[in-house]
Amino acid sequence: MRNYLLVDFGSTFTKLTAVDLVNQDIIATSKAITTVDSNIILGYETALEKLVTTIGHPIHFDRVVACSSAAGGLKMAAIGLVEELTTEAAKRVCLGAGAKVELVLSHNINNAEVQSILDHQIDIVLLAGGANGGNRECVIHNAKQLAKSSVTAPIVFAGNKDAADEIHEILSAGHKTFYICENVMPRLNVLNIDSAKDTIKDIFVKNIIEAKGIKKVEQIIDRVVLPTPNAVLMAAELLSKGFGDQVGLGDLMMVDLGGATTDVYSMAKGLPTQMNAMLSGLEEPFAKRTVEGDLGMRYSALGVLQSMTASEISHWNKLGIDIESETKKRYQNIEFIPTTDHDFKVEEIIAGKCIDTAMTRHVGTLKSVYTPMGMMYSQVGKDLSKTKYFIGTGGVVISSKDPVAMLKHATQIESKPMELRPHHPEFLLDQDYILSAMGLLSMDYPEIAFIIMKKRIIHL
Fold first, then answer.
1. DSSP letter string over 236-296?
2. Residues 74/124, Cβ–Cβ less than 8 Å
3. Same-fold call for 3-71+212-221 versus 74-207
4. Is-above-0.85 flag for pTM?
5. How many whole angstroms separate alpha carbon 377 and alpha carbon 375?
6. Could you tell me which residues are beta bridge partners of residue 379?
């Protein structure tokens, strides 16, 4: 086996990466607008034509494997007992599985909240709540609400195991498609997300790709195996940890800035680096991903505008940039490509706001606590202040005339001193947009995927 073709059906672009396994390098890459609203094969075929043109001759691929976030990706609802605990645990399951958390519900859900699941066109419902041996009434109530509803999305139960048998009976009687997993929080503040995360990925492969229309391409590719964000997460973790005797980069962060979302990844334990800081809240995973569905360069451009303060908008207006009309223009034309210096400046402004806001939501924070021993700090989330590497990926970052200026929006800033952002990271660039492809390749050839990433990701 020599040539692999790795495909990413993205929300905006379908991206192809051809890999030579023998030479352990990329042959060529290409992209075309994703045609999910008509026939997704058309965008794939356009990108394939561009790829063959770039290569300069016809090529045979021994295997074609794909990931997808087309049609908005994998939208999930997380239902838990209390938002601060089991609902937060449920959110982490969704994000770790490559999903977009569209809806978060807690306590006993009512009819209006069940209707919101339908209104948001949720793909999978994750039902959690209660430590093992603890509260079981809440998850049983919520299961009954789902069972009598018209919700058709698969339901994943990952709550109090003492309620599992009754949940099984309730959902069976309601003729729902459901899966019983291990409790995401078997004990207070202890997370166990792998069982539910793996189940969600399996559901994606078996069910969701057909609902999204992706199944149409199975006649020309071997398989669609992962949500795109999960593939990127796998690549980032491999790059951090290395493989075999290949040494990884260690602690790193990454931002993937797309048309619909801004995803932030961190590969680090995130333990306190300050002597007088104490951890509180839920434990953090080494490989963490957060996704911001309201922050993006095209589909979610209006969300970026909403995240700006009146003073920020006024500031740009005084500099001759009508940021309101610029974001609306990009929202209304997702195929917009910057050509002038003005266009690139606006792209940098929007991207910088996406990165800054997404980092605020990802990194840990410190809170002052007065104790008999003096001032202490409570740390919630990861301390990423000492992170050595920060990687940028996504079309707007790759095509930027000054990607470092864009990525610096992720670092520590004076106005947010309590956010545990990286202080002085070294910036890297995924110049060929290959991370999702390398995540796919790592499923079969992790060492080759690692070698290619080390070779192709450049230092800025």
1. HHHHHHEETTEE---SEEEEEE-SS-EEEEEES-----STTEEEESSPPPSEEEEEETT--
2. yes
3. no
4. no
5. 7
6. 279, 366
Record the tokens describing residue 63, joined without a space: 């295997």
pLDDT digits (tens, 9 = 90+) for 370-405: 877 778 889 999 999 999 999 999 989 999 989 999
Tens-place pLDDT, residues 157-204: 999 999 999 999 999 999 999 999 999 989 887 888 889 988 987 887
One-letter amino acid of 4? Y
Domain definitions of the chain by residue range: 3-71+212-221, 74-207, 240-459
- The CATH number assigned to the domain with range 3-71+212-221 reads 3.30.420.40
Q: Which fold has domain 74-207?
A: Rossmann fold (3.40.50)
Lookup: tokens for 208: 């969701």
DSSP track, 16-61:
EEEEETTTTEEEEEEEEE--TTS-HHHHHHHHHHHHHHHHTS----
Q: Which residues of 367-400 are buried (b: 16+ CB within 10 A; e: fewer)?
A: eeeeeeeeebbebebbbbbebebbbbbbbbbeeb
DSSP state for residue 63 in the 8-state scheme:
E
